[in-house]
Amino acid sequence: MRPARIAHDVRDSIEARYIVGSEPSAVLPSERKLAAEFGVARATVRSALTMLRDQQQIRTQAGGPPVVVDPHLSKAPQLSSFTQDAVARGWHPTSKVLEAEREVADVSTARNLGISPGSAVIRIRRLRVADQSPMAVEEVWLPDELFPGILSHDLSGSLYELFETIYRTAVYRHDRRISATNLDQPLADLLEVRAGAAALFATQVGFDRSGRRLEFGRSIYRGDRFDFTTITFAAARRREHSNAAQKRGLA
């Protein structure tokens, strides 16, 4: 049997025995132990682990054993950026700027940003990537008067970091709406999936602490790599929390 085929078989065996059904952060045996278990050379095990790492099923680290990771990037209820979410997973986030230009706000964009139609806005469209795997296509509109000169900065990193370090402002709240969609061919090509694949479509408006609108965005997330989590309470539970807050003088 060819070495490449053996490595694929070992990869499948490791996945079935140690990854499927395991919790994120579960630790796999060392290369030496896996080689002994499957009766193959350590180089073969290393190739199998590399394939699993490239599929983002495990994370390898120098001097340590492989660790199982969740292939989904979860958005928790608290406000966080794509960069922060990816880093929290131990992934390396990057962005490819697809388009970045100054344009005139149409009626919809103006309404979402709380500005007059025809006002100048900055539109930035980016492909968001984690560990070299495309995860989302994000398009955002910013009021030009709040972010003058932003097009001269490096837009491949975190926009929120630019907001804070250069413009001394920050997104404090998101109003977000999420729905299901299917990818057309151009988006599927960008995200490296088949046309018609399931995806999540999100629109959001970001506000600062004073309620001023800083951004309006539309994002397409790969359905097989992204999920959103929410926390909900029964009505009675909400009243209990409200009453407790009032007693503490917090409401």
UniProtKB/TrEMBL annotation:
Taxonomy, superkingdom: Bacteria
Q: Which SMART domains match?
A: HTH_GNTR (SM00345), UTRA (SM00866)
Q: Which InterPro entries match?
A: Bact_HTH_transcr_reg, Chorismate_lyase_/UTRA_dom_sf, Tscrpt_reg_HTH_GntR, UTRA, WH-like_DNA-bd_sf, WH_DNA-bd_sf
Q: Which residues form the HTH gntR-type domain?
A: 4-71
Tell me the Gene3D superfamilies matching this sequence.
Chorismate lyase-like, Winged helix-like DNA-binding domain superfamily/Winged helix DNA-binding domain
Its BP terms in the Gene Ontology are: negative regulation of DNA-templated transcription
Q: Which UniProt keywords apply?
A: DNA-binding, Transcription, Transcription regulation
Annotated Pfam families: GntR (PF00392), UTRA (PF07702)
Give GO MF terms, alphabetically: DNA binding; DNA-binding transcription factor activity
What's the name of the protein? HTH gntR-type domain-containing protein
Protein source organism: Parenemella sanctibonifatiensis
